[in-house]
Write a structure and sequence with these properties.
Number of domains: 2
Number of strands: 10
Shape: elongated
Strand content: 5-15%
Strand order of the largest sheet: 5-7-6-8-10-9
Number of helices: 13
Order of helices and strands: EHEEHEHHHHEEHHEHEHHEEHH
Helix content: 25-40%
Length: 313
């Protein structure tokens, strides 16, 4: 039997009731009928509890010995037999799913009209305008990507100055672009307009197009085969406009135009070359909307572009 006054903790010291106690919060074993409760209590709470018991006429408590936990029985583990039968089964002979890579992409033959445009010379603004109209007519009837052709509202060819010094190349049309037939008119396009204005330019001065001219389902990234199917039209637009500078907005645009594998973060901040044009890669406006901290880097890229454009070099 324990005398209650012996159990009263000293005010300044918390007794170590068990190994699992927390500093200042010892574990107290409290018998109650047939059950035994283990509570984590502060020294103050213990004192109040014992004083209450004493004032109620209780002077002693029985000693409680907690039972030792019985050891867990060891369960023998059975080793699974080696899968020798599976190695000879028909399931192992099934071919692995083929992943589409750039090496397996086959571009469709260039149409006669596009080939003629690629071999033509476009000097005046009128000639460039006429060439783009002819190319846009071919694009409007394109069926090279059956899934995209079936789901599109209309093709999104390009817009802007046919004799532009600067060309913007994006990834693919979104829902807003598919509905209006013009690239960069959604939220990303609104941010692009602000970037253009910050560069002291007007949208009408620039020629804007995409890697694809049809909206992919769910706004997913263009597949390599889709980009290859649409490449002749991009080449035609670059040939006709003949820009001095091309800005690739996003990884998809940069990789497809330049045949690169590196992401845009490794391609930005410097000029690359494509044909006669200087190419600058930066983050897509949609990415900037999701990651505002990258706007600073995109603005640095645009300052680099304008410095180069204004220097006339």
């Amino acid at each position: 039997m324990w005398q209650l006054r012996q159990l009263l903790p000293k005010p300044a010291v918390a007794p170590p009731f068990c190994e699992t106690e927390r500093p200042g919060h010892p574990v107290v074993v409290i018998p109650s009928g047939k059950e035994t409760f283990i509570k984590t209590m502060s020294s103050r709470a213990i004192r109040q509890f014992l004083q209450m018991m004493i004032s109620s006429g209780v002077s002693h408590l029985p000693t409680v010995i907690l039972p030792k936990p019985s050891p867990r029985p060891k369960i023998p583990t059975k080793r699974s037999p080696a899968p020798t039968a599976l190695a000879n089964s028909s399931a192992s002979t099934l071919p692995a799913p083929k992943q589409l890579d750039r090496q397996s992409v086959v571009a469709p033959p260039v149409s006669e009209l596009v080939q003629g445009l690629l071999e033509s010379s476009f000097q005046s603004r009128e000639q460039k305008t006429e060439g783009l109209l002819k190319l846009a007519e071919v694009v409007s009837g394109c069926q090279n990507c059956p899934e995209l052709a079936a789901g599109r509202t209309q093709t999104v060819f390009g817009v802007g100055n046919p004799a532009a010094k600067i060309m913007f190349v994006g990834e693919a049309p979104g829902a807003d672009e598919d509905r209006k037939g013009e690239p960069f008119v959604g939220p990303a396009g609104q941010l692009l307009d602000k970037i253009i204005a910050a560069c002291a330019l007007q949208r009408s001065e620039i020629y804007i197009c995409n890697i694809l001219r049809c909206r992919p389902p769910g706004n997913r990234n263009p597949l390599p085969q889709e980009a290859a199917n649409c490449r002749q039209f991009l080449d035609g637009q670059i040939k006709i406009v003949n820009p001095e500078y091309i800005v690739c907005w996003g990884t998809v645009a940069a990789q497809n135009l330049l045949g690169e594998q590196r992401p845009v973060g490794q391609l930005r901040g410097k000029f690359l070359a494509y044909g006669n044009a200087k190419v600058l890669c930066t983050y897509h406006p949609s990415y900037l909307l999701r990651n505002p901290s990258a706007k600073k880097l995109a603005w640095e890229d645009m300052q680099l572009l304008m410095k180069e454009v204004n220097s006339g070099s």
